[in-house]
Structure formats: structure tokens, C-alpha cells
Amino acid sequence: MTRRIGVLAVQGDFLEHLNMLTALNVKALPVRLPRDLIDVDSLIIPGGESTTITRLMETFGLVEPIKNFARQGNPVWGTCAGMIVAAKNVPDLDRKPLGLIDINVQRNAFGRQIDSFQTDIMITGLKNKPFPAIFIRAPIIQKVNSNVTILSQLDDGTIIAAQHNNVLVTAFHPELTTDTRVHELFLGLVNVER
Q: Into how many domains does the chain fold?
């Protein structure tokens, strides 16, 4: 069966995700409306601006359909702003996040755009080779529920990637690198969950 990965395409880095998935020979489709979820097996919520993404999801009627999509066991991955959108609790977000994964997230934890950086990180499931993580006005995970698995932390213990069942979140932008391993990790989740 051909995997069909949806990428929420209302704002942010959706083209970069679509391009990386295409490079991995995966059928990648933009998701802009609730009916688009019918055609996909999983969903990536990209980085971008979390307030804008949540507002546009409300405008296009995507909030409840995405929640239902995840509740049905379909894999969902949120990157950077997508992690904020997927979280259960984001104190400084003026809109309610989706609550797909029981984590507390702090937005813009590393500062402004000028404070963006790249660093090599270790990620559970990627063997013992560092991943070149790009952080752009990135969030962090402040707290995880006991049922959430931490996949990556910075050297100081800051949590930057986690998973619970079919929901994966990363504080960084794998789609802005040439390293496809985090996308491949998500594709492995797609294979397991479907």
C-alpha cells in the first residue's frame, strides 16, 4: 500500500516538508481543508507562526477534523510551531492548541530570530549519529506527562523532541536540512500505526 503523507499547507514550511517527502519517494499531499484528510494516512504540521497556523486552522474548519484524525490513530508530527499547535498546554498562546500530546510548551524559548542556531543532537531511534538540528525562534518542552517518551534533549537537559503513541513532536526544523532521518523516523511510525 502506498503511504500518503499529508502536510498542513496553510502557513509555514509546508513546501520544504513536501519536497523532502517527495525526495524519499513518498506520496506527499498538501492539506488545506478537512476533506483533504480523507486522502492521507498521516499528517505533518509544519513550522511557521503558531498563532497564524491556529487561526487559519480555525478559519478553514480544520481543528476538530485534525483532532479526530489523530484520535483515530493516524500519525501526526508537529515541527517547531507544529509542536506548539499539537501540544496540550501553551501558556502564552492566544488560541487553544490541539491537545494531541500531553506536553507543556514554551514558545520562542531561545529568543528572537537573530538567536536562531544549528547544533548536532542525538535522537532516540536515529542510531548513534548526531542530527544537524536547526532552531528558529524555537519552542521547548517544559513538561511531559509520564506517558510521553522523550526522544531528544540538549546538553543542558532541555527537551526538544517527544512522542506519545501516534504523535511525534520536534522543536527544530528537520525539513530545512538535507538529512532525511527524522522524516524516515516518522515514516516508520506511519508503518507501525497503520
A: 1
